[in-house]
Amino acid sequence: MPSRKYADGEVVMGRWPGSVLYYEVQVTSYDDVAHLYTVKYKDGTELALKESDIRSQSSFKHRKSQSSSSSPSRRSSSRSRSRSPGRPGRGRRRSASQSREHKDDKKKAIQETSLALPAVLILFKPSENNTKRYNGEPENTEKNDTSCIILEQKLKPDLEVKHFEQYSLRSRKDEKKKEEMYSEKKIFTTVKTIEKAPSKTKELEFGGRIGTFMLILLLPATVLYLLLMCKQDDPSLINFPALPALESLWETRVFGIFLLWFFLQALFYLLPIGKVVEGLPLSNGKKLQYRINGFYAFIFTAAAIGILLYFQFELHYLYDHFMQFAVSAAAFSLALSIYLYVRSLKAPEEELAPGGNSGYFIYDFFTGHELNPRIGSFDLKYFCELRPGLIGWVVINLAMLLAEMKIHNLSMPSLSMILVNSFQLLYVVDALWNEEAVLTTMDITHDGFGFMLAFGDLVWVPFVYSLQAFYLVGHPTVISWPVAAAITVVNCIGYYIFRSANSQKNNFRRNPADPRLANLKFIPTATGKGLLVTGWWGFVRHPNYLGDIIMALAWSLPCGFNHILPYFYVIYFICLLVHREARDEHHCKQKYGLAWERYCQRVPYRIFPYIY
């Protein structure tokens, strides 16, 4: 086995991949198996280089001395041969100090132009893109980091411009030609063109075309099955419910009420209240603006519901027609998905979603072809993410509470129903209060708006997440106060982990220099971001997922243990988060490379400490 040539901590010259430029780097580690050196550039970039791409500093200094040590006699004879006796001697009138100043200015200009190149390479690497609904993608996440490689290949002629005069491996004559042919302006123009070039989705998720086609059929069927099971006296898995008549699943009045609800939330979204913030940079460098007024929309909705109850509107109408409301929401989400896909066919290439641009109709229809579809300033994806479905979830829970009181002739709701409503209300209010955090999630930054998100936001969230409250109406469960207190403690623990972990991540992402985060340690990466290794993110890799699962368990415990149906949400949520965690791991490994491997060695557990 060959021995290593350079020691850890040694300062050497490392070749930038795809170019002939050498930069001063520091050796940080050596892989005995792959025979690769991990080096760190002055801007913090870490790369793995072969030994052939590393040279000692002395070799460059030696070359510089050779190139500048030509004898005076040779320079003199060269000048004498290149100028005829009859030509005016303008060059002779220039003083030696003027000549040195001219050379120094030229060298400074070359260095300033060349020093911009590494910054370009780092600047145009993709930043980011999954957590549940709004809680934000973990800092250790994202997508294929291939733009840097493409950029290096496309700009290879341009990158051969001299970085430092003594560090170039080409002759001075060739380098001078390159300087004349490729200016700094052309380099940045080429970079801009490459960034706008669309990239096709190569790695298909959810089983590809066949898997997404099956999901389009199975998701509505699953919602229908769960709601029919809750209506039965014995909602066991072996007791398959009878299918209702098709005409009983549709009612025009119910569909009209759903449309009224959707457009009422759209009206609240358009109100000129709340601050306007910028999202993360898109692939073309632009930042979209979003109005943060979801909590105000919740307050206005609560006031409207209070007025309806004051005038004795029977809100339990929702319970009586729950199946029809679910079918109406599913029909609307399908129509919205069709509209979104049709309009995406005319969208500019740079506005397409990186995860939904495969070229396959079914796959792109499901995952979403356009990243941020907007009607004017009305962002359809951002609106649906938190408004109609999430606020509707709270309204449905309230309707179930009132239906329980009416059906069972109760003067006040059961303790189980109060716990379920309270826990899930806290979750929704937290989401709306921290609405700005949704702008950093993969739902916003990476996933397109198609059937997956449209159905998830408008059908799955309000009608499946409210499953515990719907179950308790037909299957009342009595719990004691000590049991209720224990369940409350479980929910508080999950919420604390969930909120504190997301706050650490979001604050670190927004402003790593925040003095409040001075105690947090992180591993620097080649993308310019850091991987937190202290706090919750040094405990497990996805602490926000851990908090989510603990809360989901607390929501189901008030339903007792007579049937597994109320725990469907917990099982589903564990499967969902394990899938997302696997996707995050894949993206992070591709994006952060060796830095992610170091992070995984530092934080070995993914979601459950000492288990997984």
From TrEMBL:
Pfam families per record: ERG4_ERG24, LBR_tudor
EC number: 1.3.1.70
Membrane topology qualifier: Multi-pass membrane protein
Ranges of biased composition (kind: Basic residues): 76-95
Alphabetized GO MF terms: Delta14-sterol reductase activity; DNA binding
Keywords: Cholesterol biosynthesis, Cholesterol metabolism, Cytoplasm, DNA-binding, Endoplasmic reticulum, Lipid biosynthesis, Lipid metabolism, Membrane, Nucleus, Oxidoreductase, Phosphoprotein, Receptor, Steroid biosynthesis, Steroid metabolism, Sterol biosynthesis, Sterol metabolism, Transmembrane, Transmembrane helix
Localization terms from the record: Cytoplasm; Endoplasmic reticulum membrane; Nucleus inner membrane
Basic and acidic residues bias: start-end ranges: 99-110
Region listing for Disordered, in residue ranges: 53-110
Residues of the Tudor domain: 4-62
Transmembrane segment boundaries: 206-228, 254-273, 294-313, 325-342, 453-473, 479-498, 519-540, 560-579
Catalytic activity line of the entry: 4,4-dimethyl-8,14-cholestadien-3beta-ol + NADPH + H(+) = 4,4-dimethyl-5alpha-cholest-8-en-3beta-ol + NADP(+); 5alpha-cholest-8,14-dien-3beta-ol + NADPH + H(+) = 5alpha-cholest-8-en-3beta-ol + NADP(+); 4,4-dimethyl-5alpha-cholesta-8,24-dien-3beta-ol + NADP(+) = 4,4-dimethyl-5alpha-cholesta-8,14,24-trien-3beta-ol + NADPH + H(+)
Keyword Phosphoprotein found: yes
Biased composition (Low complexity): 66-75
Pathways per UniProt: Steroid biosynthesis; cholesterol biosynthesis
SMART domains: TUDOR (SM00333)
Protein name, per record: Delta(14)-sterol reductase LBR
